[in-house]
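Go through this one:
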Amino acid sequence: MRIKYNSPTVLTYAFLSALVLILSQTVLPSLTRDWFMVPGKNTFSPSSFRNWVCVFTHVVGHANWNHLISNFSFILLIGPILEENYGSLSLIFMIAVTAVVTGLLNAFLFPTALLGASGVVFMMILLASFTNFNHGEIPLTFILVLFLYLGRELFNSFSSNNISEFAHIVGGFCGSLFGFFRPAARKY
């Protein structure tokens, strides 16, 4: 028996995120802040190359191990199933679009910085509810997941914390759109 690198997109994403955190906590203490965090609207500069890079890369950076583990426990659970159903390149595309949408909206709407993969987590959660989707139907699992996960985020958005419920909601919206407009490849 051998170990198989069964989900290249998801596993590479997880290892890269762990590597960034290790480097940030050891030899490059400003790495996450400088290259993996989208500045908020008061500090985002459209003329800054670094700010535009961070619009894509913020989903790789994490504040600490708890932050990374809570995001990647979901990504490593759901991601391989999605990668098998949608393909590696499609999943990379979906992660990148979710990163850009959440990053740009945060940069232009909120004064706080954005860091982490939770928007990607919510994209995957909502997308996963479409794995058995047929055109002309709305899966009941999608409705329940939408109500439970995004309803909770809407409720939590009224509390004072350092969590971007907005990124969760936008990520879930991205996953919903991907599920409706990019159905999984069927394997018979």
Q: What stands out?
A: The chain has a mean pLDDT of 90. The chain has eight helices and no strands. Residues 29 and 49 are 20 Å apart (CA to CA). Residues 65-86 form the longest helix (22 residues).
